[in-house]
Records
---
Amino acid sequence: MSKYTEDDLREELKTKEYEYGFYTDIESDTFPIGLNEDVVIAISKKKNEPQWMTDWRLEAFKSWKEMTEPEWANVHYQKPDFQAIAYYSAPASVDPNKTLDDVDADLLAMYKKLGISVDEQKKMNNIAMDIVVDSVSVATTFKKTLSEKGILFMPISEAIQEHPELVKKYLGTVVPQKDNFYAALNSAVFSDGSFCYIPKGVRCPMELSTYFRINQANTGQFERTLVIADKGSYVSYLEGCTAPSRDENQLHAAVVELIALDDAEIKYSTVQNWFPGNAEGKGGVYNFVTKRGICEKNAKISWTQVETGSAVTWKYPSCILKGDNSIGEFYSIAVTNNYQQADTGTKMIHLGKNTKSTIISKGISAGKSQNSYRGLVQVSPRAENARNFSQCDSLLMGNECGAHTFPYIEVKNKSAQIEHEATTSKIGEDQIFYCNQRGIETEKAIALIVNGFSKDVLNKLPMEFAVEAQKLLEISLEGSVG
Amino acid sequence: MLKINDLHASVEDKPILRGINLHVKPGEVHAIMGPNGSGKSTLASVIAGKEEYEVNKGDILLDGEDLEELSAEERAHKGVFLSFQYPVEIPGVSVTNFMKTAINETRKAKGLPDMPANEMLKLIREKSELLEIDRKFLSRSLNQGFSGGEKKRNEIFQMAMLEPKLAILDETDSGLDIDALRIVANGVNKLKSKDNAVIVITHYQRLLDYTVPDFVHVLHNGKIVKSGTKELAHELEAKGYDWIKEEVGA
């Protein structure tokens, strides 16, 4: 049983503004704004990348130039001016050969503020962490402990140098360069991200974690994450995101690729809390992310996400169930408040026999926000006995928000079993009054109801994350029922 | 303890209570009876502080303090408890978690720290035994999929946990079979003390056979038109409400 009671939570929540909205003045090395071939080459050069990598980027850039921004999602926003963004920003004090002890004191102070003191993380939580600020990975902890088991966990820029064979073999295999507009952009300009490889039969002894933060103004963040779980291995991966509060919109276009080889399992959890814009809908992060994993025989990939931030979210963590008996799971809580818009869901592509997928999506809309679930369950002709269970629940607060569900089901094999359940409910005045009558004030009542609604998904998160996620739900919905 | 003076209340500008006077002393059990639409449930909601109801005139005093300006949760903190006629469902929130939150919020309002876990456990054990509640029941989502009887029993369980000063039971007997009725009534009886009071709102006599009222009031058209002792309840059971309506010339 958790010792962390809901009152501890309340204590922590005395200030309910976006608490990560500070900006740390760190000297940084930022490219001038704008994007062209030279910028792509310059990024590659900055990283001392081998020629194949530069070429790979250029190929992506070529495709991107021909592509147009997708418009099918149920979101409305002013399209970013891609020439008004700086595509590379690095804290100036990062030296490629650094160890943790060399990390800039201001940076360390910033981590402290984020509640992720690297030292403490190291000692207490048994979580190995990679921290990406703006575009560069600045600290990876536990590297040594992990390497004893043969586990590689490092910035992807480092992996390109040290393990080119692995990167070359897998990069872009799940999300090809020209997969979509944002993926192509990311492939051209990604500057860092995390790389992780778990060798055959190894069970990663700790949670691996990446913390992303946008700090500089007018910079885009394009991180690239590549996780490879070799045969029979297991890894649990956590990802957290914050950004300062700014009036202008910031762009975040990440790509995450997961590769689960035969009998491997990857659990990927995200708590996304990018700045959502203020109460009037000004500012906030545009979060256009492509996340996809591929499962070989008997492999399993589980995506769990708690999405409370960003002004606009466009994100569909997906599983390609290529191998027979492979399993894909998607557990999601998406909260939108004020003027936030989210279009999020998953794709489960059943290719192998006896493949199974589960989708549990919980959407919570408040204020004037719009929250959409969009999901595809696809069963290919040779996917005998494929099974899917989908459940999409929406919870509405107030009369000005919207919840939408767009489930797509394409089945080309008669033996498939597909179940889809959907509910929409509203937090009722009767529920609130009932709680009030038992001495529970309205804000607390809402938190209680929302936590209850989200429980099935919260339970899937690792403990430390579940607590943070619960806290975030409460912050995000503050003031949403008048 | 409770003094209601010339209370007029309305919902959406429609007057429902038209001058209620009621005095309840510690240790007493009052029954409020009356036909459908007479204002019984409204009276319960107004005392508990439901926002949609507007008090147009008169006041409600609890231990001399006017409740008018207090929110529903503040009234709860002062010991007002309402057993709902139709308890709401809260999916994903267990009975235990709900009670823990309610108790600790009330303690917080009084400047007390959270109830220690072992104490909470002891309290839950004791009160669930009192109401013959299965422990498994406590881990279920609040009221979700509960039978009518389970919902009502759960209401009284909550009452037992919160130990209110003034408990209002709004048609707690409706929808109960005879065994459940006995358990609920026994629970109420055991919770009665010289320091607290109970208002039982009901259509029927049957709960009053177990939980014997000191006073019975008949509510009609938003007013208490007749008060008496438990014999009045028997009379109502035998003769219905029509004779009262005639008597007051409504």
---
Amino acid sequence: MSKTLFDKVWDSHVVQHIENGPDVLFIDRHLVHEVTSPVAFLGLKNRGIKVLYPERTFATADHNTPTRNQHLPVKDKLSANQLKALEENAKAHSIPYWGLGHEKNGIVHVIGPENGITVPGATIVCGDSHTSTHGAFGAIAFGIGTSEVEMVLSTQCIMQPKPKSMRITIDGELSNAVTPKDVALYIISQLTTSGATGYFVEYAGEVFRNMSMEGRMTVCNLSIEMGARGGMIAPDSTTFDYIKEREYTPKGKDWDKAMEYWNTLRSDSDAVFHKEISFNAADIEPMITYGTNPGMGIGIQSGIPTAQAMDAGAATYQKSLSYMDFKEGEAMIGKPIDFVFLGSCTNGRIEDFRAFASIIKGRKKAENVTAWLVPGSHKVEEAIKAEGILDILQESGFELREPGCSACLAMNDDKIPAGKYAVSTSNRNFEGRQGPGARTLLASPLVAAAAAVTGKVTDPRELMELQEA
Amino acid sequence: MAYDKFNILTSSAVPLPIENVDTDQIIPARFLKATERKGFGDNLFRDWRYNSDDTPKEHFVLNNPIYSGKILVGGKNFGSGSSREHAAWAVYDYGFRCVVSSFFADIFRNNCLNIGVLPVQVSAEFLDKIFKAIESNPKTEIKVNLPEQSITILETGEVESFAINDYKKQNMLNGFDDIDYLLNIKKDIQQFAQNTPL
């Protein structure tokens, strides 16, 4: 019987199928961070059991860590306590632990791929919804709750019914300044924030085939924002080139053997999906959000839609616009902004910093803008320095911080103040997500850079034309 | 962690007729710093419930004494966003045992089932009927019958059935959790692992 890519990976990991119930799914690799794991470790302690496969488990600190002075003790007591708990739990269960200051430390979804923990055909989970990122490599990867973290620690399995399958195909060529982030925000704006709930998505077509691994990670990362459990892309030479020779990927004969399997990881040509959707690359513009969920995005030159044009109820829509202090029909271009955040598991990789630098080079940070530039990991930070990007940033008046989740969820001190507008390369514009009362405009690194140097929402193509002229 | 058994729940309900209620609203990230599962109910809907000086926001439904009960009724796409189980813990810790909506986000629904909060998905029409019934009488009682998989607005007698898979239903009825099940088949899992290289 013909199978989708998702079927192939899922079915090969089913330990047991329960009739009219969930599958017992074996998890190859489990990523653990400080926020969603302590209660799970406590559960193990209460049951008197140990982690079953510590060698399949990896721990890092990222969610509540400071992005300045990481060599000093963490000031916030609760955060420090959570970090200490992770360190102790990792030690007690012999789990590799990459804490603050460790050369491999960084955002869990950045360091997984960087170190070769993420490989095609694997099942990967983490107590974080953006685990979908790892699907970029042709893995099944998704976020789980803390009860499930406890299940994986204790038995390396979770119990879930198999999701339905959806394929999103985009062919054609992307226009100038349209990045993977724009592709994802466009898809979410079309499907809404719940349009893929219950599905696991496969991204197919020219646009994704031509994308770098960093770009694919950005797209898969945002799968959860349309409600999908995860998204995946069939592995190809781009994938294999990226993972080869990374620390945890197979070597020598093991690599050859793995390649034989990985080369089978694509949907059969006659495979049937529960739902098929396609878009045209040429329809996608640089995007920006204007509301309080990631589905509320528009092309940067468009006006804010009217309530009538929306799927959500009018009351919900008005609540959202009132939070943002925006009005129906207004243009986004030219709106003054206060903060710019470049970073997160969505856009905190080296390509994102290259894109940002390409716009700000030779320009100055706008005086009214506070910019937080936070690399996804120490390896990204090293690359920023090695490629001379740090010099460009500093010449333009920007400062580079230390790695972590930072203002994406504002668990640490990086909080956007109430009422202020932030153009953010992160993944969620929910009310208060970046700090109580903060107003978030999600966008690509190019749009963020354009805002950072002009102090207002600006079409990056205008600045690129000036550079070319 | 085993949890309370769920059988039949009859209670008044708290209405929250807003769509796309995300987990950052249910519990903001700055309240996720605990290392134990305690006290999350105090921060349920924190920023909708309290002003920045911690005084209650009068107009928010949880601060309105005419609404109470063990059932929370939310608009479409309830619980979207983050995988934080803390959101389900906050709902439970506040005193809710059941959340009703016309559509749930995946991970939130799963987390609820794993801790003993029953997510009941009803049609958009039935959800509307519940909201109207509560609007006309805030003490309206709703009966959630898990064995029969039905939900009834007692005042009007309007009833609808809801879906839940047999395995999870038995877990809820008996207060079992998945780890008990998985630990029982540990040998099968270990055998499977041997054939699944890293």
